[in-house]
Amino acid sequence: MKKMLLDMLKSTGRWPEKPVISLVGAGGKTTCAYLLAEELAGEGKKVLVTTTTHMEHPNFLGRNGAIDQSPEEIAAALEKSPIVTAGTSGLGGMKMRALPEEVFGAVLPYFDAAVIEADGSKRHPFKVPASHEPVIRKETTHIMILAGMPAMGRPLCRVCFRMEEAEKLLLETENRGPAEDGRDGSLAERILTPGLAGRLLEAGYVQPLKRQFPDAAQMILLNQTEDAAAVEELQKNTSVPVFGRPSDPVRANGRIHLILLAAGFSRRFGENKLLFELDGRPMYQYPMEIFRTLKAVRRDIASVCVVSQYARILETAGEYGFCPAENRESAEGISSSLKLGIKKSREADKTDGTEEHFYCFFVADQPHLRADTVNRFLDGFLRSGKKIGCLASGDTTGNPVIFHESYVPELMGLKGDTGGKKVLKRHPEEVFLCDVGEELQLHDYDSRQSLEDRRIKGNAE
């Protein structure tokens, strides 16, 4: 039987009545923080989840949150769930920041355990910390150091956050010249192996943290792997226990239907904006290029449907190999296109009916959206276990929006110029929000003026 995260931590030494666990490094800290919290809650504990740096806002994770609250208000949130995520408002609303030290100290007695994300890695799968990192609370009893298995076998410069710190450690601890690990004289191009990762984590995290927190038990988690040999190689190069954790399961039988809603009248634009050329390409063609890329890289795309009232768009959809769906009822609003897209997608599906189905809606006037962003969004959504998902930036939600098939009756019940966002707002607890990264990717063009403003701003930048 595979060890759970809690079993791993308990095996590292004395287990206190009220554990305070700090997660550092890179490669899945937030995911592991909530897995730990859920395992602790399963033992009947009341669990505080927080950060000393920043982490995803609980609202965007569907979590029970208490942001900018007093210790008493944070404790009161336990009435909703045994796991409470607490912090202060972060810039842009997508992240939360640390609790003030006095608030953390005051709220801790209300809980039986605390799980703290205590390091930042900017989505890199590996990290070597700077001298001021990580930020560990003095109450910490256990430190879990993470490294992502997807970083292994790749050049350090492509996977390591704080590459300059990695270079310093390598120069300090090794004699330059040909040696193991594929070293070719370029530190940045060194291939990260589990052995090299172990040496960097030992020098960057383990030894400094032993000096600063001698009573805190430490372990390393090689995340997203079942490779026992990789775990063993890393273990040979560090002085603390090393464990492996397999990848999160993805809905293996999920089937995704991509639906482009391209039947609007563009009244505010002054002409058909979907046919308007931007950088030499009509607006509607941008999402079609994304669809073509997704079909090439993903096996779970069941169908692609383009809904429009315009012959040129429908003809192009056919040329791309997509299913064109003529909407003769466009005057009834976006709900007519949405429902037609679902109907045609179901007709195009050739599976035996045993798979889960998801309907992902795109708009045709969002030309800055990128295929890699959509691919990341779909992966994150499938792993989340949620049934609704959309892209977001700060407090702004945007397209695409994806729905599990269980929401089809609600979607088919929409009327007039009402889209799927109405269904999304009814079920906030079921929504997975994916940070788009660049807000520009969410931008759509309602008027010629908005397009000109964007061009002027782009030229100025």
Automatic annotation (TrEMBL):
Pfam families given in the database record: NTP_transf_3, YqeC
Domain of life of the source: Bacteria
MobA-like NTP transferase domain location: 259-429
InterPro entries: MobA-like_NTP_Trfase (IPR025877), Mur-like_cat_sf (IPR036565), Nucleotide-diphossugar_trans (IPR029044), YqeC (IPR017587)
UniProt xrefs under PANTHER family: MOLYBDENUM COFACTOR CYTIDYLYLTRANSFERASE
The name this protein goes by in its record: MobA-like NTP transferase domain-containing protein
